[in-house]
Amino acid sequence: MQRIDRNSRAVIEFTITWHDQGIDHQDRTWADPVSFWRDVIDPRLVQNLYGQGVGGQAIVDIPANRFSQPYNRKNLISIRPKQFRSHDRFGNDVVLRRGRFYPQGMLEGVDGVFRVSTAPCRYLGTEGDRLLFDLNHPLAGRDLRLQATVRAIHAVGKERGGRCEDWLERASAGGPGMQAPIGTGVVADLTLEDLQRIDERPDDTFYRQPRLVQHLDSSARREITGNYGRLIPAGARVLDLMGSWDSHLPDDLALGGLTVLGLNDEELRRNRRAGETLAHDLNATPRLPFADAAFDAVICTASIEYLTAPHAVVAEIRRVLRPGGLVAIAFSNRWFPPKAIRIWTELHEFERLGLVTDLLAANGGFSGLSTLSRRGLPRPDDDPHQELMYSDPVFMVWGQAC
Fold it and tell me: Which tens digits make up the pLDDT trace of 370-385?
């Protein structure tokens, strides 16, 4: 059995866990290859991984002041309104919203910020006639825990140089931290414009034709299924909200019952796990046709972005869940553009994670909220979209009914 040593090249999954405003967050990044002789890896991780094989793990705590980009008050800046470029690179108008992130390149006249910069900065609001922004890394100021899990070990061969990666920097780049709300209800304070869609025809017209296909690749589906299996207790009465022919539940998970609510009768009939199906348009009638506390778990997969009355539906989810019951919402970065609400298409993918979290938090009926992101897995061989390098990312939010 191969084991990690100083010359190893391996597949490592890095997991960053952190806590903010009573919410637990976990961000996982698949890294391949990781070079133990060339790359920048926390030496404590390296020492603890030496001698371990596939499945081995090491964990280190990273206090906020030891993060590679620690919080700095000098990164809190104020600018004149005319220093904010109010159009994106496509010429679309950009309206500032408190709590949202914007590319730093949209700021003019700020030391060290260049127009091409895509690093995020958070809009904090106004102070007099000035606009306030936070240019700190989204994870800055938080205590982190970093876990490395060995997923595979490559055969040792000759290398002729290569790029040196800083794996904490890589794992924390591209969005982790952006899901943390600036305050409960701020991100989920949605306007009528936020909830508009390109295609406002009745949903039963758009979904009349059955789509008996998978909308996410097999790696993403496996991740979602595994997490549902971990979160949903055996014997649970489950409601699959906005469901279809596949509820993404483990085959070996014994249920007390599965009710699937969707829009297409043919898709619902094909769901082999369902004990009960119901065609119901939540955008036309947000109220769920079920009794109070009728379910032990409510799941929603790759559909939350289509709700035009999300607050009302979240309140209904709480109503039909028994106290202590589970709500779990999973999604990726693929959807039907004509039917997604406008705000969803404008948000960064980690901000979408924050929006869903905020929808649950703002309702006040859920506790123990947690989020998960998983990125960077290779595109599975059975997926037709081989032009894409990576598997569809997975984002999840879950909690318990109070």
Answer: 999 999 999 988 887 8
